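Morning run. Coffee first, then this:
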Amino acid sequence: MLPFEKYFILSSSVPWRSEKDLKSLVENRVIFGFENCELNIFETHQEAEDVHLTFNSFVLTAMLKGKKNMALGNTSFFDYLPGEMVIVQPEEVMRINFPTATMDDPTQCIALSISEESIKETFEMMNEKYPRLMSGNKWELDKSFFHLLGGDDLNKIVNRFIHLAISDDSGEKDVIATFTLKEMLIRLSQTQARYVLESSLNSRKDSNPLFHVVNYIKTNITEKFSLDGLSKMACLSPTHFSRLFKLETGMTLTEFIQYERLKKAKKLLIASTFSVREIAFRTGFTDVNFFNRVFKRELGVTPTVFRLSKE
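And here it is:
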């Protein structure tokens, strides 16, 4: 299961191909070329199984509408839904099923293929100018974490690419796409960094300041945290700590604490019989009305509706 479920839909403005323009009812493909990348928009209008797809370069895919079951190489199949993203390595085989696609309810996704030179150039620049001093990790794309939930930053970048492809015919489109691509790679690496934190806290919680602080937040989620207290734990000034934390994770400290509180609240709503009020207090919220507002803003539904949807 993805670590944080958010009902965030990517662009709803991608027009469907008219039936007469479809070359195929399964993975009909439209390509938009840029200088350093290529945006592919795929549509499927009927049920299909065991569809294979490969690219010769690194690819970021994102589901826009509908549902797929997907596996990479020899991995197990997983559901692939709107708001989620999958990283695919060069020449890696995507095996795809379309269990629900119809002419009236098709699936739509994008695949952004990226040149190896762009990836190398972006991360060499980040490692040289903005090293990850708290975790000690390098800026890169981690092959271990390929199925991601796109946060607001990543989703907005994907939407910008879609807009550039289908709506922008200005002469500077390639320049804008190049800078947007660099931002996307940085946000993608930050998103993966949060997954690394999730998976390795037990083994690495004392190995560096970032893991120590994050582990403390997760295990003391009901506390009222202060920037001064957490920055002292990391042996850094509050200003330096805030800057490095945002650089590493892509989130401010306040955003990360709220992220962890909502994640725990979601688990309690599913697995416990505690009231919404009690869950709010058990996850560090001091006001149930504020908890309800934040939960709905971030997940798209109230805590009560979320609980009912999981019964």
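The domain at 211-309 is CATH 1.10.10.60 (Arc Repressor Mutant, subunit A). Good start to the day.
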